Amino acid sequence: xxxxxxxxxxxxxxxxxxxxxKNAAVAIIPAAILADDVVRIENIPQISDVQLIIEILxxxxxxxxxxxxxxxxxxxxxxxxxxxxxxxxxxxRASYYLIGAMLGxxxxxxxxxxxxxxxxxxxxxxxxxxxxxxxxDVDVVNGMVCTKAEKLVGxxxxxxxxxxxxxxNVMLAAVLARGLTVIENAAKEPHIVDLANFLxxxxxxxxxxxxxxxxxRGVEKMHGCTYSIIPDQIEAGTYMVAAAACGGDVxxxxxxxxxxxxxxxxLEEAGAEIIEYDDAVRVTRFKPLTKCNVKTMPHPGxxxxxxxxxxxxxAIAKGTSILSESVWDNRFQYVGQLSRMGANIQVDGKVxxxxxxxxxxxxKVKATDLRAGAxxxxxxxxxxxxxxxxxxxxxxxxxxxxxxxxxxxxxxIQRVEAEEAVSAQSAG
Length: 428
Ligand code: EPU
Known about the structure:
four-stranded mixed beta sheet, 33% helix
């Protein structure tokens, strides 16, 4: 087992390159099943969620060719229909995209209920509603989602909640359905647009992605393509918040600044300066941080996946900030860890009241989920002394080369075996 050991107190300077978007990649890779052909996907992030989805396609018989570090070719013409067991789906949420993709191509799917980060009940009722409205029968039997359809027929589907996963899954199932599917109250995240662009590159007819009404006209057949995944909004946001929290001057490269506006706005309010370039943002912060209120919202609001990282920054900002979570029921599990580092945070339901403190102090903390893990890294970098972060497999799910990237900015962070971490912590 490995931990991160971080010696805090260094400002960050330099440039960091952002990888492809996790939450786009984990939908786009299974979407290749729909092509029944060879698809080349570029800008794939090197993270464990992506490795898992590639492994599942490999086991299903797809031919996978690694072209270079971040480009693969997937030939899905040789894929065999089969059920996907829990051993393969338990570690990541996005395994549910296999349901939409297989239903679209084979008109049937059997996929174990997905795992993923635990922040409250994570129902998939809207996915199921969408598949049923397209004409599929769906049963959940012994933890497996089993669905099949004689044929899928386009229809109008109103999503009762704005759901990224349900919007993308229904898109996957609908591209090869007969006629027109209209998704109303659709999610608008950048990865929804990316999936639509990918599907269209494979011959689908998807319009309106990025708005709350997406129209999908079914096509007979799809085909191979070459496609490059968008940069990861949340990885970029994480480095931006880290730069603002630690202080310094960081150029965050290979990003789409438009996707980062809600994050930039809050960082500016808290005392950082942000300069936008065509495909980069520069974050500088040399004056003290001040409080600001943040409420997470579906895109284009402030992303829930940036909430824990922002909490760290607010924990050391002068004044009292209110941080409200409006997407997930229970996304403050990491607060106990931050409190052990000296943060003053009171949580009441979906609201955290954060009283800024002078400094945090390094201790041993746990990553309670992926973004909480990123938050613990930032906390370790701003804290006095040595912080050990346990459960770092969560971080590996969504951040490529996090040690090398933060290290190149001047952070003192290492990945070490657990026993070495114990001695580093007691020495620090
Ligand atoms: N919801 C339902 N029914 C459904 C689906 C969702 O009630 O059928 C509710 C959820 O309980 C939640 C809200 O709708 O309260 C939003 O959930 P959504 O479906 O949008 O989330 P998701 O698709 O499961 C993706 C990301 C998450 C990110 C959310 C919100 C992936 C693989 N995961 O999850 O990312 O927090 O959208 O933006 O795309 C992460 O990357 O760390 C992460 C957790």
